[in-house]
Amino acid sequence: MRKDFYPFSLEREMSKWEFKVAYNLSESGVNPLSLMELAEDDPDFIEGIIKTSLNYVQANGLEELRQNISYLYPGATPENVIVTSGAAQANFTSILTTLDPGDEIVVMLPNYMQIYGIAKNYSLDVKTFTLQEEMNWGIDPEEIKAAVSDKTRFIAVCNPNNPTGHIMTTEEMDAVVEAASKSGAWLLADEVYAGAEHHQDEITPTFWGKYERVIAVGSMSKAYALPGLRIGWVVAPPELVNEIWARQDYITISSAILANKIAAYALSPENYPRMIQRTRQYVRSGYQNLERWINQHSDQFSVIPPQAAAIAFVRYQKDINSTKLVERLVQEQDTYIVPGDHFGLDHHLRISYGLSKDYVNEGLRRIYQTYESF
Asked: Considering its fold, how many domains does the chain have in total?
């Protein structure tokens, strides 16, 4: 057994508690859709799903689904797309395909820490650059320029960002692309929160098309409120897609036929706008609700307003370790949130607000009660 394995603490702790506690505000998406809500007044679709033979699907993804995904990326075709078992597999196989042990990777922090952990476990040379809280979680172009060297083979970013909800400006995106192009590095952009914007009706711009070595990763879990499908994807140059497919053959072979069909339906040009509208209703009203709670306790809590997503990275004032705070919250209040420790930033909490208002408010009440007990 490997003794130096770097565990994925965020996912392991979430899996321990999210289905056991009474109030789970660690969820990073909005209230999931039911199949009935997704289909609305379309009994033919429901009947078609029921009658589907539970066979394998084409290993790189249902043709219709890859076509609908390609519509989201200007200039892409189905040949640029491979369907994966969630964005997690997309990230994993992208690294497995493009990097060898000892290669240099530059990772944005804070971030969903999967890629950071994969890099550690795969014996990559990991360098980081950090979003700046004093810049509203923006990027310092000089820092990313300093982090990327001639040896850098891969840069990983998350836009919109998890956990801060920051959307990169055009200038920030240009700085990332410039850094990648100077070293010839692959640029992986985790864009799973695109479509969950708070203040704009335009979808967050993709990195796809800005540079010839972009790997754009998406998922049905966040902006489309269908996490249980476990459908993600990679959009990349066709030759890289084929190489990723070769690695996928060893790992999952394919995702599930029903998940492919449901995802294709949700991403169809007819249904896609409805998916986005529903998610935005949840994140926009949900954040207003969370903001009221923060304002009520502004002497102890503050937040840089997220620009997208259903999570906020909340700073607190007391000198309490975030993991210890969450452990007591679980034990005493039957409630779970994500400690800032999981992102390398203590004195922060990642709190979900994309669920029903009453549910969130009771969870927030319990958070404050535990916080005050310290």
From this structure: 2
Region 67-81: mean pLDDT is 98
3-class secondary-structure state, position 363: helix
Residues 216-240: b if buried by 16+ CB within 10 A, e if exposed:
bbbbbbbbbbbbebbbbbbbbeeeb
pLDDT digit string, tens, across residues 248-304: 999 999 999 999 999 999 999 999 999 999 999 999 999 999 999 999 999 999 999
Give the mean pLDDT of 64-69: 98
Rounded CA gap, 66 and 81, in Å? 6
Is residue 3 domain-resident? no
What does the pLDDT read at residue 118?
Answer: 96
* CA atoms of 77 and 238, how far apart (whole Å): 9
4 within a domain of the structure (yes/no): no
Alpha helices by DSSP H, 83-150? 86-98, 114-121, 141-147
Report the alpha-carbon distance of residue 38 to residue 170 in Å, rounded. 34
In DSSP notation, 329-353 reads HHHHHSEE-EEGGGGT-SSEEEEE-
Tell me the C-alpha to C-alpha distance, in Å, between residue 308 and each of 42, 155, 173, 197, 202. Answer: 30, 22, 16, 4, 12
pLDDT tens digits for 218-253? Answer: 999 999 999 999 999 999 999 999 999 999 999 999
Residue 66: CB atoms within 10 A of its CB come to 24
Provide Rg for the chain, Cα atoms: 20
Q: Indicate yes or no: pTM above 0.90.
A: yes
CATH code at 308? 3.90.1150.10
Q: Which residues are paired to 312 by β-bridges?
A: 351
305 and 264 fall within a common domain = no
